[in-house]
Amino acid sequence: MASLQHWVVFLLLSIFPVVDAGHPDWEHARFSSPAWLFIKPGAKYQLWPRSTIPLCYDSDETRDTFHDILWAAMRLWYAAGLPESFRLLEINRLACIHNPFESLYVEGTRDVLASDIGMPLISMRSGADQPEVDKPTIKVFVDRENLGWTIKSAAHELGHAFGLLHEHQNPSFWGPNGADKVFRFYCMHLHDFVEITEGMYEDDVWGQTGVCRDIISAEEIGFSAGDWLPEVATDVFTPHPWWAHDSMVDWDSIMLYQSFSDSIDEDHIPVLTRWDTSTWESSWTPSTLDVAGLEAMYESPWANPMLPFWNDIRSPYFALFRQFSHCA
Ligand SMILES: [Zn+2]
């Protein structure tokens, strides 16, 4: 039975892109690997040219602390099979000052881990009359008691920096409007649930666009549910069709949160479980499919060898860039 089922899945995977070839989500979906999730490069993001991330540090101290950790994190990726054409490249301070938007800025923090996804082009503060331009940034910190964890976490953030999203936020694994399907999501177990939802109407929490159901609503108020709920399907790319199920989750992905992350009790109370309520631990190394995802992304037609940056006349942002760079 199991093998028959696999054949059916295989056949459907094989014909699906052909059947739906006209849809933009699927036009380039000719991949044989069954799992991963990445950004759809476009107006908001790009991929790093030549799959190389130029790095700048916010201080010499940050460099001393994080250089070795970031390189160790890259070695985890290479050990998982990532080609060495994917790389970090330390550039000199002058180059960092002159090209702040064409490199990734390493910021040392006390307790924050975060990274921009891919290479963000420009971000506009909504409602404001002038663009707020943020440098592409990766935020890291060191747990000196647990260097293995620190390196693994840096590897996760580098997955984001190259363009991968969280495995569990693949909309294929969720029902419509953030409903449970492959996973069970216990939003009320998030450590900031009580604080965030205090005084809210029931519908603003649990309704279709509530902060426990809709990633945009969650992100707007800085709720940690934004790191769990499914991404907006039109913003992402995955070879999964909408009917993906449990066996299609890459349980070994370094981009998959463990069940107990962000919980009110990280030892006993899960935030996300499988449908049968079982839980999983986090992965300490990138998986084969994490590597396959990055390779597919950078082999795709979106991976331009040369980018029109907004200080480039070919960029749609050129006029805007000129306008504001002259104000400075
Ligand atoms: Zn992450």
**CATH-defined topology of the largest domain:** Collagenase (Catalytic Domain)
Q: Examine the secondary-structure arrangement and name the CATH architecture of the largest domain.
A: 3-Layer(aba) Sandwich
Q: Which structural class do you get from the secondary structure elements?
A: alpha/beta
- Cα-based radius of gyration, to the nearest Å: 20 Å
Count of separate DSSP helical elements:
9
Determine the strand fraction and express it as a percent band.
5-15%
State the domain count: 2
According to CATH, what is the class of the largest domain? Answer: Alpha Beta
User: Ranges with pLDDT <50 over ≥5 residues?
Assistant: 1-34, 123-128, 305-314, 323-328
> What's the story with the biggest beta sheet?
5 strands, mixed
Helix content: 25-40%
Strand order of the largest sheet: 4-3-5-8-6
Order of helices and strands: HEEEHEHEEEEHEHHHEEHH
Report mean pLDDT, rounded to a whole number: 80
Task: Based on Cα principal axes, name the global outline.
Answer: globular
Report, as a whole number of angstroms, the end-to-end distance: 67 Å
